[in-house]
Every structure is written in C-alpha cells, then in structure tokens.
TrEMBL record:
Keywords: ATP-binding, Cytoplasm, Ligase, Nucleotide-binding, RNA-binding, tRNA processing, tRNA-binding. Catalyzes the formation of N(4)-acetylcytidine (ac(4)C) at the wobble position of elongator tRNA(Met), using acetate and ATP as substrates. First activates an acetate ion to form acetyladenylate (Ac-AMP) and then transfers the acetyl group to tRNA to form ac(4)C34. It holds the Pfam family HIGH_NTase1. The gene is tmcAL. It comes from Sporosarcina koreensis. Its EC number is 6.3.4.-. This is tRNA(Met) cytidine acetate ligase.
C-alpha cells in the first residue's frame, strides 16, 4: 500500500483541509493518507480550539487514514523545528511522499530556493545572525537573509518565503533533505483565504483563524457552517454541549498568571524560548494585567512577534524548560491517535518494520517526550475545564486510538 504524508493542525478542520487531503491523494495515487497532527498546544503557541481526540475524529471523517501526534517539543517549536519533527515522523511511517499546501502551488520555486540556500549556506546563516542582532524577529531575519542571497542571482523562479505556507513548505523540504529522506515532495496550491486571514466571505474555504475569530465574536457556530464539513460541525456542536467552552488564551490566562507570579523571573529564565531578559517584562505584565489581551499588549515588541511570545507562555504554562527541550532532539516514537480500516491494514503490514516504536497505549511506553505530551494534555484539560471537576484530566490513559469505518465515515469507535 502506498502512503502519502501531510502535516496538519486542524484547528478546526475546514473545507480547505478536505481539499488538501483529496488533492494529495489524487496527485500521488496514494492508498493511504497519514497525518502528523499537533496535540493540544499548537505551533503558534496557543491552546487548540478543541482537543486532539476531537480533531482526530475530524481528520478520519474527512479523508485521512492514520493520525499520529506530533510531540509537544516539535508541535510548539519554530518553523524549522516543527517541520523537522513532522518530516521525521512521516519518513519513519513509511510514506513515499509528503504533500503540503502552498501559496505558490508549484515545486520548481521551492527546489530552486533549496538549492540556492544550499550553495550559500554560510552567507545565509551569517545574514540571519546579523538580522537578529539588529533586532529583527526570527521569521523576519530568515526572510531578510533569503533576500540577501537572492540579490544578483539569475532570474529563476524562487519561492516567496514571506508567505506562511510557503515558509513551512520550504522547511519541510529542507528537513527531508537534511535527514536523507527518500520521500518525494508534492505541493498543492492553497485555495481560498490566506493562513492568517481573519474574515469570512462568500467563499466556501476560509482560514481556521477566521473560523475561530467568528466563533469567539458571536459565541455561535451559525456563521461558519458554510466553511466546514458536516462532520466538523457535528463534532463542534457535540463539544459545545459537553464542555465549558472552546480553547483560547483568555480561558487559560488565570492559570498562566498564577504560574508567572509564583515562579518569578529566576524560574522563568529556565523556560524554553525565554531569553534576553524578557522574563522580567513578563513578570511585570502579569503583576498588572488582568486579561490575556492586555498582557500581550504590554509584552509585545518589535523584537518578539506575537507568536514567539505565545510559545514562551505555552512553555511557562506547561513547565517546559530549555534542558528538557535539549533532551528531546529527535522524535522517539509514533503515537497513534486514530485510523480507518485502510489505515489499520497499512499498519498491520508495516508495523514490524517501523524504525520507531508504535504507541497505542501510553502506559506501555516510557519516554520523556511522551511524558511531556501527557502533561501538556492534562494542563490543557485543566484550563479548558476552568479547574473544576469537569476537567477531563488523564484522558491520554483512558482514550484508545479512535477507529473510523472508512474515510468520510461519521461512525467512530
């Protein structure tokens, strides 16, 4: 059986994601689609709208056959770390190719950009360091360095690395090259709204950002039903009826603020991504600000993007330190969240030859990275349940991998 891999967050899954899965299957002739999906905290440093189990159900109902969890260490990392962890897992899962959505929708510009940076690696890395020293954020420094090495080059098409999906796509390709993966790279042009687009319009494809903003602006799903599959709608309605609310930083802020005030700058300094004295600013902001939005306005600066600060805060909330991250350099397992019958058939054939352990029950495996995933899930449940007895803590030990009869099915076990 031929498998193609995709990297997803599904926060939440919408029509554009269904299109991506469908086109990935068509473009490669794959029998099985394997998704590596972030857990309960995401790459932009924020709690997921709904938990990983609900998003796994969305995936299995919308074209995906196997869902593996991207460990917390990579799921909450910057673009290169996020991409490296995901690509290593897809490679370990035996995918023949990986497919990413992009603004360019053409592989040639990405291949040219990868070759160009490879030929000028020392110059590129020096330009990144210089830009950061000048006060630019990491993403802006990467793009500035890229523009530097583009100057004076022959007029071949190159990827626009100012676009968010192009950036991730480039890093997926860079990661695959660095580990010597034999997977082919395939890209599908992103349709509809952009990654960061916060508005809904007459299109049937909106961004997940726009969908979340619409919900939090009205507290109803009525305005987004045209942009999401029926299965996503039903799962969101089920979630809404059973939980106190959807995941967002305002709900988690009281817990975050408590941790910041309790630990103080000296402890904050040990947390992953916290550097250059920003722990003092974070501490002062927590002393004075009683909402997440006002807290972020007090901390944000030209040097630190909103996303980078949110990643710091996620690590503060979960207690993820620099030392812990250093000990989790590579993915150590394939954590199965769910599969269809086709996915199960694929794993039955492959599982004895997988280079990483296949984990379906967390109690059967011990690893610091898995411990961190479980901790992050429990903290997510605590914040989501607002610390009441409705918080579904310990779910990783209670929830077995989700089974769906077939992609597109709405029947789960």
């Amino acid at each position: 059986m031929k498998a193609i891999g995709i990297v997803v967050e599904y926060n939440p899954l919408h029509n554009g994601h269904v299109y991506h899965a469908e086109q990935s299957r068509l473009a490669t002739g794959a029998d099985v689609i394997i998704a590596v999906m972030s857990g309960n905290f995401l790459q932009r440093g924020e709690p997921a709208f709904v938990d990983k189990w609900t998003r796994t159900k969305m995936a299995l109902a919308s074209g995906v056959d196997i869902v593996f969890e991207l460990p917390y260490r990579f799921a909450t990392g910057n673009a290169p770390a996020f991409a490296r962890g995901a690509i290593e897992l897809l490679d370990a899962a035996g995918c023949s190719a990986f497919c990413f959505g992009s603004e360019d929708g053409n592989m040639e510009p990405f291949q040219n950009s990868l070759q160009l940076i490879g030929r000028h690696r020392d110059e590129y890395e020096a330009a990144v360091k210089y830009a950061i020293a000048e006060g630019l954020s990491y993403p802006m420094a990467l793009n500035k360095a890229y523009e530097t090495i583009l100057a004076g080059q022959s007029a071949v098409p190159v990827a626009d690395l100012s676009k968010p999906n192009n950036i991730l796509g480039f890093h997926y390709m860079e990661a695959a090259q660095s580990i010597g993966s034999s997977m082919d790279a395939v890209t599908i042009k992103r349709m509809g709204a952009g990654y960061h687009d916060e508005t809904l319009d007459s299109q049937k494809i909106a961004s997940a950002t726009g969908i979340r903003k619409s919900y939090f602006g009205s507290e109803t799903l009525d305005d987004v039903v045209g942009f999401i599959p029926e299965a996503t709608r039903n799962l969101l309605l089920e979630w809404q009826s059973e939980r106190k609310g959807f995941g967002n930083w305002e709900s988690f802020y009281p817990f975050l603020r408590f941790i910041i005030l309790r630990d103080g700058p000296s402890r904050l300094r040990t947390i992953a991504d916290v550097s250059e004295g920003i722990e003092n600013l974070i501490f002062r902001a927590a002393q004075s600000q009683d909402s997440f939005k006002s807290f972020m306005d007090a901390v944000k600066s030209k040097r630190y993007t909103w996303t980078r600060i949110q990643r710091m805060l996620t690590h503060i909330l979960t207690g993820f330190t620099k030392d812990m991250r250093a000990d989790m350099d590579k993915p150590a397992y394939l954590r199965l969240l769910g599969m269809t019958n086709e996915g199960r058939s694929y794993l039955n054939v492959r599982k004895k030859n997988l280079p990483l352990p296949l984990i379906s029950k967390v109690a059967s495996f011990s690893d610091p990275s898995l411990d961190m995933d479980i901790t992050a899930s429990d903290i997510y449940a605590l914040g989501l349940g607002k610390g009441t007895d409705e918080s579904k803590i310990g779910l990783d030990y209670l929830q077995s991998p989700i089974m769906a009869d077939h992609f597109g099915s709405k029947s789960f076990k």
